[in-house]
Amino acid sequence: MKEKLEKIMNDAVEKINISAKLEELNDIRVAFLGKKGELTSILKSMKDVAPEDRPKVGQLVNEARAKIEGVLEEKKTALASAAREAQMKAETIDVTLPAKKPMMGHRHPNTIALEEIERIFIGMGYEVVEGPEVEYDYYNFEALNIPANHPAKDEQDTFYINSNIVLRTQTSSTQVHEMEKGKVPIRMIAPGRVFRSDEVDATHSPSFHQVEGLVIDKDVTFADLKGTLAEFAKQVFGEDTKVKFRPHHFPFTEPSAEMDVSCFKCGGKGCRFCKGEGWIEILGCGMVHPHVLEMSGIDPEEYVGFAFGVGLERIALLKYEIDDMRLLYENDTRFLKQF
Ligand SMILES: [Zn+2]
């Protein structure tokens, strides 16, 4: 009986030692220690053992059971920790791999141009003022000397919210708000988004940006206007830049002019960039119409002023020699990251 037990025990230990999986251990437990297991069948055959030997055999069976259970438990722990180690190995992070670089954003060419324009005018003592993009018809047109029957008010030119409210077509409306505050002298620029019902092409967009300027004081002359804008042109396009004023018409200024700058590519000799002209049209300007001052509550007998408006995209396109305005709005990072 003792030998039989030893054989069962050795069999069990051997099977446990060669098993490589936790499931196999469970099968071994059932085979030896289960209800129909080999060790249990020994206990069942106790009736054949002489009564005086039974305690001894019982003890041997218990020892064998304890031994098998102990080895099983050890092996189970070893297999579990091996499995955990294998899993850890599989999930290891290689810290020597280069990390994914985040995409770094940067300023849009429009923003770069705007910040430069703001820097120039702030340097000359101007204030930067912002106004609403959705504006009363009065501030966008009437108060700027554009009466109800003016062609600029055509539905082809303007986005109407209703008969009283429009998407502003110019940031000059901000100047009217500023004048109405009655705090003169005024020296301001009004940058911002404006809207026109234009078809999209290389030089037009239904939404673009303007920077308009306004100076109102007691002794302002056209010479101040010319000097200010000549300085602006030099700072944007280079020290050698010359300016030229051509008579023009705007409802809110009188007299009015358009300003050209000498081509900064050819110095005025004429090239492909300036289409052989030697000059590039930059902005509109003029002395504030007395009626505009009067409508906003400023006495035109006491105060005079000048105003100008420049397209922000125009400056950005020229500055970076971009030939299609649409590129500024497409948000193609391959294009934008060049600036
Ligand atoms: Zn040129």
TrEMBL record:
GO terms for biological process: phenylalanyl-tRNA aminoacylation. Pfam families: Phe_tRNA-synt_N, tRNA-synt_2d. It catalyses: tRNA(Phe) + L-phenylalanine + ATP = L-phenylalanyl-tRNA(Phe) + AMP + diphosphate + H(+). Binds 2 magnesium ions per tetramer. Its cofactor is Mg(2+). GO terms for cellular component: cytoplasm. CDD domains: PheRS_alpha_core (cd00496). InterPro entries: aa-tRNA-synth_II, aa-tRNA-synth_II/BPL/LPL, Phe-tRNA-synth_IIc_asu, Phe-tRNA_ligase_II_N, Phe_tRNA_ligase_alpha1_bac, Phenylalanyl-tRNA_Synthase, tRNA-bd_arm. Residues 117-330 form the Aminoacyl-transfer RNA synthetases class-II family profile domain. GO terms for molecular function: ATP binding; catalytic activity, acting on a protein; magnesium ion binding; phenylalanine-tRNA ligase activity; transferase activity; tRNA binding. It comes from the Bacteria. It is found in: Cytoplasm. Its EC number is 6.1.1.20. Mg(2+) binds at residue 254. It is an enzyme of class 6 (ligase). Belongs to the class-II aminoacyl-tRNA synthetase family. Phe-tRNA synthetase alpha subunit type 1 subfamily. NCBIfam families: pheS. This is Phenylalanine--tRNA ligase alpha subunit.
